[in-house]
Amino acid sequence: MCAKYLKRDIDNVLSEWKRTVNRKPLLLHGARQVGKTSAIREFAKQFDYFIEINFETEDRELNVRGLFKRGLTPRQMCDELARAARTPVAAGQTLLFFDEIQACLPALSLLTCFYSEYPELHVIAAGSLLSFALHELPLFGLGCIHSQYLYPLSFEEYLRAVEDDRLADGLREVSPEKPFPDDLHSRYIRRLTHFILAGGMPSVVAVYAGGGSWAECRQALDNLILAFYGDFPKYKHRALAPRLREVFASVIHQTGNKFNYSMASRGSNYPQIKECIKLLELAELIYPAVHTSADTFPLAAGVNAKFRKYSVLDTGIYHRFLRPEPAAPEEQEHLLQGASAELFVGLELLKAAPGDRPAPLYYWQDEKPGSQAEVEYVVQRRTDIVPVALKSETRDGRSSLIQFLSEKRCTYGVRCSTENFGVHRHVKNYPLYAAAQIGK
Predict the structure, then answer these.
(1) In contact, 421 and 429? CB cutoff 8 Å
(2) Which among 45, 217, 228, 344 is most buried, taking Cβ atoms within 10 Å?
(3) pLDDT, tens digit (0-9, with 9 covering 90-100), for 69-89
(4) Which contiguous run of DSSP H or E holds residue 208?
(5) Eight-class DSSP state of 153
(6) pLDDT tier at 326, thresholds 50, 70, 90
(7) Exposed, middle or buried, 130 (CB in 10 Å: 0-12/13-18/19+)?
(8) CB proximity list for 73: less than 8 A, separation 6 or greater
(9) CA angle 40–45–46, rounded 5-degree value
(10) The pTM is what?
């Protein structure tokens, strides 16, 4: 029996793209198993005909790779695909889907031609290791491709997956000035604890939403980690799979701290570790948060690239990798504290950004000698620079958030915690579960 499809925010994005008049071929980015293929197959139900070509597991009888090596135009290619797949290709009626397109560079090159030569046809391509191919083609698809990014499920998407639409709808109407009733706040906290432990990878959420046990969720997470490891040999021959595994593990263990290359691998030098980090970023298994001075717009103008933190793509992967002692989620208060909470907030900020305009993560730390002041995230909200802190104070008892507000003369700051909504002078409190709303 096929697993039930989990509705995603990307569904609405795809439907809007379908109706766009000046439509470009859509290129869907995302790590392996974040739900790209499932979302497109669900979207395909809006069409009369659907042709799917997976360049990693293609049907040899179609000889698709051979077709793309013949230098055909988009219309000629569609004629050949229609004959090979015995499915009509008709503008407005057919969805043409190229999956794992990075495995066939001629197909990737032809994709850019559809906009000028066959714009009325709906064409989507996706790839789990897509950034590897695009990294070698910096001007690929300039002005001819619509790129969209997909991440694991957000907390709101998770709530809808477990059929708690009331809580999901409530997240869209939050306000620091209007705290939730205590019982409702407690419900959010319980759901959040479950989500942080399980994570947002669709295969795991499907297990939990379908009534599966925590043991089954852990097994699904183990399968995902093994799948990621299985991809490592595909990255590049210069980075050995064991070294990639070692650096990937170090990213997880260093979550919440500035990444220390000397701690990343015992037998590798700095260039080798840096190469592994680059490859893991391209595979979208890890995301950077870069230090910014936050003195002006844009935040990127004040970046100090020497100071970086890294986050793994999913809280469930993070906790399963660390393998905490088995316990019910409600018995694991540490899930809402420290590095776990910081990881969750960063991922929610990433997921909340428009899918066609990914927003980088930034953080701030006082660079004066001896200072311990640090703000976990800094975001731009309209014309305001907003610091987002998870710790109330540093080890010396000083508030990093208050120091930041004073030095940068910001209008307000945000403190993210397990507390309910609230406002105290220039600090707005957002519960962790509402982190996605901070940057909106």
Answers:
(1) yes
(2) 344
(3) 888 999 999 999 999 889 999
(4) helix 202-209
(5) P
(6) low
(7) buried
(8) 113, 117
(9) 100
(10) 0.94
